[in-house]
Amino acid sequence: MDKKVTIAIVAIVAVFAVIVCASVLMQESPKYDPKDVDLSNLANADLKPCLEVYGNVNEDLVIDNEDVKALEAALKDGTASKLKYADANFDGKVDSNDVEYIKKIMNASFDNPVEIKHIQRYSDGDYYVDESKGRSTTIPVKAIATTASANMLTLYKHLGICDEIKAVAWYSKVDQTLLSEYQKFFVDSKFDIEGSPIYRVGGSAGYFSEEMLTKHIVNDGITTLITADNASSYLCGPSKSYPYGITEDRAYELGLDVIRIAPAATEFDNFLSDLALIALVTGKDLSTVKELQSWISSTISEINDKLTSKVGKGYVAQKSVAVSSSNSYVKSSDGTVETSNYISSFISDYTKVALGAGGKWVMQDYPWKEGSSSSSKYTDLGKWLDPYNIETIIAIKTASGFSYYDKEATLESKVPWSCMMAFSDSEAFYNNSVYVLSGDLPVVLRIVYAATILYPDLFSDSWAEKKHISYAEEFLGMDSSTIKNGKFYVTMEDMGLKN
Amino acid sequence: MKIDDKIEAYKKKNNEPKPFIGVAILATILVFILSLSASEINIGFFEAFRIIYDHILGIEPTNYHDMIRDRIIVEQNIPRALGAICAGSVLAIGGAVLQNLIRNPLADPYTLGISSGALFGMVVAIVLGVSIIPFLDQMDGRIVNAFLFALIPTAIIVFLSTFKKVSPTMMILIGIAVMYIFNAFNTIIRYTTDDETISQIYQWTIGSVSGLSWGSIPKLTFALIMIYVSMYLIRNEIDIVAQGDHNAITLGINPNRLRIIALVIVSLATAIIVCYTGTIGFVGLVAPHIARRYFGSKCRLLIPGSAAIGALMVLISDYLIRIIAPNLPVGVVLALVCSPIFIVILVRMKKNVW
Amino acid sequence: MDDEKFERMKAEYNSHVIRKIGFIILCIAFMVVMIAVSVNIGGYDLSFIEVYNTIINHIIGVVPEEYSKEWYDYQIVWNNRLPRILFAILSGVGLAVSGATMQSVMKNPLAEPYTTGVSAGACFGVAISMVIGVSILPSLNMGLEAFILALIPVCIIIIMSPKLNNSVATIILIGTALTYMFNAFSTLLLVTTDSETLAAIYKWQVGSFTNISWDRLTTIAIFVIIGTIVIEFLSHKLNIMTLGDNAAQSLGINVRRIRILCLLVMALMVACIVSYAGIIGFVGLICPHIIRLIIGSDNRFLIPAASAFGAAFLLFADSCAKWLSSLDMVPVGAICGLIGAPLFLFILMRNRREIW
Asked: Which among B188, B194, B283, B353 is the top mutation candidate for probing chain C, defined by the most C β-carbons within 10 Å of its own β-carbon?
């Protein structure tokens, strides 16, 4: 045999032997033991949402006479340059022209369209604001192209926006009970229902086909594109060299104004200011937004007060929690199992729901990909389940093939079952603490139900139901019987999996 | 007499490379034993044996800690190791036989389209929820689908060969054409599903032994025994056909019929493997080449030798995965670790085996 | 030999040549027709006349008013459909010519442009770009990550080939090993990422012509056209090389150098195409076989025929994909396989000659 080949093979065998010895002799790593209570991730109840539009001088939710007065007073004082949103016409100077411009914005109508400048926020793991891209939008808007994910449509439902939407990009249909008026969007582009004005212009949530979009720009007069704020997957794709579908710059070239919002944000300041922006842009009533602000603020402070007073050493122990959004499980009759599990990272919107409900996230030293807003996969028995003491696993799933508003259908569906079985080797499963939470709920309600799941002594099911009914009646236009007939989180006992 | 001397020398040469096979088999057993205790949770080497002993005696684990360890060792590690051995051997034997019969170094069991047929069956079952045999449970439906569809390319080749004399290269080209058709369907279906299903399917195409359980071991073992015994029985005929079709005909062997028979058996065995593990892609192509380097091209040694090397490759890769990076599928580590070795061997090869 | 016999042989040979040239012209004619048809297919509703008005107006120099209907027509026809059609044509030429050359150079009917590892390298480059988020010079709007990484396996082979006893089979095997290795690298990256990125990478990998602009097109055109011309000049020598390495060398051909030159040219062409279009898998392997079955293996005719047929075929496939789904839900590679594989099987069965 060749000498060098021998050396190579001996070297590889030696490396192999070293690895083997190391693994054999290695000790078990100690369990992570969360001693201290960490309630720093609770949602902020002291909301000061700000409509991030230039012209909103007093940084509230509307552009009205208060802004005019504030600007005039500031111009007299000479403190005008300190106001962030004072330069309404975005010409670089703060002067009386801006006062005139604010008045123009207040009187904008279809006959007198006005161009406003707003801040565009992107999320790429963490929020960042691209101030250089003060995007402009002409208001009011008659026709919109949008992403039709469940979160977006729920947001539109708060404001009653439906007929303005002319073109949607979507993948899977949404809960028929919650969003019944939006079901008409989901028609195939080739066979449209008589009289339906909506066409599908994209095969998945972040992808708009240029030809179809242009067709609707010409036919329906679309002027605005509203989509989610993920910088790395919507309107571009994960890589700038390989864009997938139309990019944001191309949309601007085609004459569209692009607005990016965060419909599933647990930072309610951002959520409310996005809502106010859409209301301003479509000319809808802003009073809903203000009422929503007070509802959210009071509910969140109620939750936070209960948690901070009772969760701690000696009282209710803080639960350590992991959240999952993507999981599946199939098992064959001869025992072959195929599972797929993704646990959401710390900065994911889903995890923030559980943290906002008082849970503790214990996986700090797990090597997450920097900037990942989503999740990381684990398969096979034993993957970091041992060193991380996870007491509860919450899987947040949107309904597909059933509706959470129908109790029987939910309990009969296989989806919650397979979500739970996907974690069947974890300690949480062994202790009957794997839950499935509805992903079709508005974010604040997710926190309400998550609190009920994590601390049933502090938050009862009837309290959650009351909250849900109050929210649904006031903001979603649904009545209490619909809510009472639904099941919005599923326990292992419901699925017959209790050990 | 000179002839007797030559016969003696030939016999001696024939008997030479045996120790290497022994080494390979011994190494396989060693790695098997080592791999029993390997997992992400660090279970001590001797504790693994204690757990197995307890399990055989019937002692039930009482808390989560013990239960999970028992589950890992008995329900996961052992079947996985056994399955790795079976898969590696079957693929390597299939590759060796096909390369000899088709006389092309690029032949391996997947070139005939088996992998894309199986993938198509899988995709149909996962996405469309349709399985050929109705009333089957979800996962069962997938496995059966994968198996049946994996045989279609072979069936087409056999069918076409009854009409027309099919040269070995043409056989592969037909297999490749059918593979493209299936790939086309796969691509269209996969393209139109959501992200989760795409990643599910992707996992399967990479190939891993992690989903195996005790229930699948009998079938995998059956595949191994079937292919090993049948190929070993016709080992001499394969050697003769490898010299050339005309040589084979003058010696009274029908090369086309032999190819078809070998093809069918290899397809059956590979299909069984593929529908449980997915497509583990490197072994069938490379293990025979490595084996040829050390054992020569005669089937008497090549078949057991490539089986041993194939089993060793998959087993080592699985073991390394379990120690180092448990998220990975087997095919990845196989390619990473074995590619450089393979390239080095190729470069250093003095005699041209091809 | 008699003059009569000689004349007859000459006439027979000429008829063969005419047949081959006829095939090439037929392919080109089909391609031209497909261009005219394909410009009209797409999600945006444009009638036949409007399309041609737009084209003619742009050539004359009439600039439509911004955001008017004519302006949108112009955007779609000139910035979407025409580049896509030209891209399909150029890719067809590049891939088919590379495939034919690869099979001649490697003397193996299973060789295709991706055997040297180009596709795996490109996939790895894209995976790096998407998962890690690193983009090399994104402002140039060229898929440089994929391009550079696609060339690395070929460079490895070219560097190592002097040590390889010049055996073609070992080149193929090393190429295959490199393919597996780079695929493994990609998988390593992809397993750690979330399902959205995975889906995005998969959609790139499957191959489509949608992300194209005029400047990218110019780069591709340069590479493909120059590459094809170079290989056409080498086609004489490729013919002689099929006699075997020793025979060719005794006739004065530097086999090794030509082999490496061909590999390099092919790699550049294919890397360029793959880095924009993704991995379109059928054209490089099966199209040359189809052509060989029709007009034989003479490289002087094979190369032009490959370019004509490849272009026509890929353009046809792309038009079908566009027609079937205006949302780009049907990828080109799939249609290629669906149309081409049965075609190949059919021709294979009807053929009397044995080429391989």
From this structure: B188
* Residue from A23, A200, A377 to probe the interface with B (highest B Cβ count within 10 Å): A23
Tell me the average pLDDT across B227-239: 91
pLDDT mean across residues, chain C:
84
A357 and A465 together in one domain? yes
**In whole angstroms, what is the distance from residue B298 CA to residue B236 CA?**
8
Exposure class string for A290-326: b at 16+ Cβ within 10 A, else e: bebbebbbebbbbbbebbeeebeeeebebbbbbbbbb
User: Per-residue pLDDT tens for A72-123?
Assistant: 888 888 877 778 888 887 777 788 888 888 888 888 888 888 888 888 887 7
The DSSP call for residue A312 is S
Among A29, C113, C179, C143, which residue's Cα sits nearest to residue B41? A29
User: pLDDT tens digit string along A332-365?
Assistant: 777 777 777 777 777 778 888 999 898 888 776 6
Distance from CA of A366 to the nearest CA of B (A): 13
Q: Which chains touch B (3 or more CB pairs under 8 A)?
A: A, C
Quote the DSSP letter at residue C166.
T
Domain containing residue A183: CATH number:
3.40.50.1980
User: What dihedral do alpha carbons B79, B81, B86, B92 form, nearest 10°?
Assistant: 160
Q: Which CATH superfamily is domain C88-350 in?
A: ABC transporter involved in vitamin B12 uptake, BtuC (1.10.3470.10)
Cα(A152)–Cα(A261) distance, integer angstroms: 9
This model of the complex carries an ipTM of 0.80
Cis check: omega of the bond before A140, within 30 degrees of 0: yes
Read off the amino acid at residue A324: S
Please state, in angstroms and as integers, the Cα–Cα distance from residue B86 to each residue in B90, B122, B275, B309, B338, following that order. Answer: 6, 21, 13, 12, 19
Query: Which tens digits make up the pLDDT trace of B117-145?
Result: 888 888 887 777 766 666 666 667 777 88
Confidence band (pLDDT; 50, 70, 90) for C222?
A: very high
What's the total number of domains in chain A?
Answer: 3
Residue with tokens 């062994």: A430
> To which H or E segment does residue A437 belong?
strand A434-438
What is the C-alpha end-to-end distance of chain A, expressed in Å?
60
pTM: 0.81
**Cβ pair A340:B199 closer than 8 A:** yes
Superfamily covering domain B2-348? ABC transporter involved in vitamin B12 uptake, BtuC (1.10.3470.10)
Q: Which residues pair with A127 in a beta bridge?
A: A123
- Quick one: which of A461, A481, A439, A447 has its CA closest to A151? A439
